[in-house]
UniProtKB/TrEMBL annotation:
Transmembrane segments: none annotated. The lineage of its organism: Bacteria, Bacillati, Actinomycetota, Actinomycetes, Kitasatosporales. Residues 31-391 form the FAD dependent oxidoreductase domain. This is FAD-dependent oxidoreductase. It comes from Streptomyces lavendofoliae. Pfam families: DAO. Coiled coil: none annotated. InterPro entries: FAD-dep_OxRdtase, FAD/NAD-bd_sf. One of its GO terms (cellular component) is cytoplasm.
Length: 463
């Protein structure tokens, strides 16, 4: 069977693209204007409306809700947050522990809220399993495990080769870690359910309405301007498309493939009955899930970055990337060599210059934003949204500081990315270095992380 390429994502091929909502009919006003209809924007609108039902909230979405990463991701709802270790250095260990605990709670919050709102998103809480299959990966796995435990994840477990195989039989796996703070989701079912829920509460959503410029109290579109005391930018990997934001967050590509449904005989071989989300410890790491209809969806970095912060062509993916992801799949499960790849697609995520996610409300202008989640935004977007709600309530005098507004990622400032061609050269060199390091580690006998990867981390500002 031929592999479908692009078409936004497999998740949309399964669910169908939604009927469009009306664009902005002209100039108007609101109490809060949210720019971007992904998880961040929609959760924010949802929580604000729940907290203050009389608020007039308008969401402006350039295409349709879930067009971006929220409709294309790997469906790992998990407790990772970009920048925790850096926040620990800047704000102290205890502050980072609070951030980690908030992320752990966020996984439960999403699951419970989806259930309460009757959003059926194929959620299965099987935890997160991350496997190592080289000596260097195993060393890194153990080191990360110790750090995660020190940050308060005491329920995380280090598993040997046999225990790993009891869960998922990844060829050559020598160990793994498992944490309960993770669940598999169907990304589109979640984002679509969220949009419908927010709308049913009374949030107004305008689609096909790209915001070209954001100014204090103004969101400007080709169809008119929304004036609002609070304007929130929730555009993640697409942020470079807004006037003045070319170098704010770098749009990084991530690509995915999904297999045809696998027969029971193959699942007998593979195991994976717990439906954990599955990752590895390679530098150019992969992430995977067993879908509700028994396929494997697997992702990784393809072409990591396109020149000039170009973002998207409805998810079309280079054939070489599809082949590379298939090689990763077969490396994990050799019996899948003959399995059909039903669909391949890509999307963009937002990467700040210091690789730290952030949520901010500038009290002097009423401008807010959240994102820069790098590859960990499915759960983080929910924490960001609840934090934006609290920041707005605090700013408008309805409440004081909360447990969320005092987390260390709030109001974090970071410098812009370098101009081109440095941006393009830097990111390509980084991922070439990671791939080279993975190749060298695959044949090395030592357990040390390859020097190239360590150097790349340091030069890129990633660690
Ligand atoms: C292939 C892939 C796999 C991933 N896998 C995972 C995973 O398994 N787990 C995980 O935690 N994270 C994952 N991520 C990251 C995660 O999906 C994102 O961090 C998260 O969805 C971000 O949500 P968001 O709402 O901030 O951004 P988005 O979902 O990108 O939403 C932004 C929205 O803003 C709209 N928009 C953009 N510009 C404008 C404008 N000017 N005017 C109006 N609207 C605009 C876009 O159309 C889009 O709908 C993955 C990302 C990708 C691309």
């Amino acid at each position: 069977m031929n592999t479908v390429n692009g078409g936004i994502s497999f998740w949309y091929a399964q669910e169908g693209t939604p009927a469009p909502r009306e664009p902005l009919p002209g100039d108007t006003t609101a109490d809060v204007c949210v720019v971007g209809g992904g998880y961040t924007g929609l959760w924010t609108a949802y929580y604000l409306k729940k907290a203050v039902p009389f608020l007039n909230i308008i969401v402006l979405e350039g295409k349709f809700c879930g067009y971006g990463a929220s409709g294309r991701n790997g469906g790992w709802l998990y407790n990772g947050i970009a920048g925790r270790d850096r926040y620990a250095k800047a704000h102290g260990h205890d502050a980072a522990v609070r951030l980690q605990r908030a992320m752990n709670d966020t996984v439960t919050e999403v699951i419970e809220t989806a259930a309460a709102e009757k959003i059926d998103a194929d959620i299965h809480r099987g935890g997160v399993l991350e496997v190592a299959y080289t000596p260097a990966q195993l060393e890194r796995l153990k080191a990360y495990h110790s750090v995660d435990v020190a940050f308060g994840e005491t329920d995380r477990r280090l598993l040997g080769a046999r225990e790993t195989a009891d869960r998922v039989r990844v060829t050559g796996a020598v160990g793994s870690t498992w944490t309960p703070h993770g669940a598999r989701v169907h990304p589109v079912k979640l984002v679509r359910g969220l949009a419908a829920t927010a709308e049913a509460l009374g949030v107004t959503i305008h689609e096909s309405t790209p915001v070209t410029e954001i100014r204090p109290k103004h969101a400007i579109t080709p169809y008119g301007t929304v004036r609002a005391p609070y304007v929130l930018r929730c555009t993640e990997g697409f942020t470079a498309g807004i006037k003045g934001h070319k170098r704010t967050w770098l749009p990084m590509n991530s690509s995915m493939i999904v297999t045809d449904p696998l027969p029971a005989s193959l699942w007998d071989d593979i195991g994976w009955t717990g439906r954990e989300t599955l990752g590895d410890m390679a530098h150019a790491y992969m992430y995977a899930q067993r879908t509700a209809d028994d396929r494997i969806a697997l992702g990784g970095r393809g072409i990591p970055y396109r020149y000039g912060s170009a973002t998207d062509n409805d998810g079309r993916t280079r054939p070489a990337t599809v082949d590379a992801l298939r090689d990763v799949l077969v490396r994990l499960f050799p019996r899948l060599a003959g399995t059909g790849i039903a669909h391949a697609w890509s999307g963009v995520l937002g990467v700040p210059r210091d690789w730290c996610a952030t949520v901010t409300l500038d009290r002097s202008t009423g401008l807010g934003w959240a994102g820069g989640y790098v590859g960990s935004g499915v759960a983080t977007a929910n924490l960001a949204a609840r934090t934006l709600r609290d920041l707005i309530q605090q700013d408008s005098g309805q409440s004081g500081p909360t447990d969320l507004t005092t987390l260390p990622w709030v109001n974090h400032k970071v410098r812009s990315w370098e101009p081109e061609p440095l941006r393009w050269l830097g990111v390509h060199a980084l991922y070439a270095a990671y791939r080279a390091a993975d190749r060298r580690e695959a044949t090395a006998r030592t357990a040390t992380t390859d020097r190239i990867a360590t150097l790349a981390d340091r030069v890129s500002g990633r660690h």
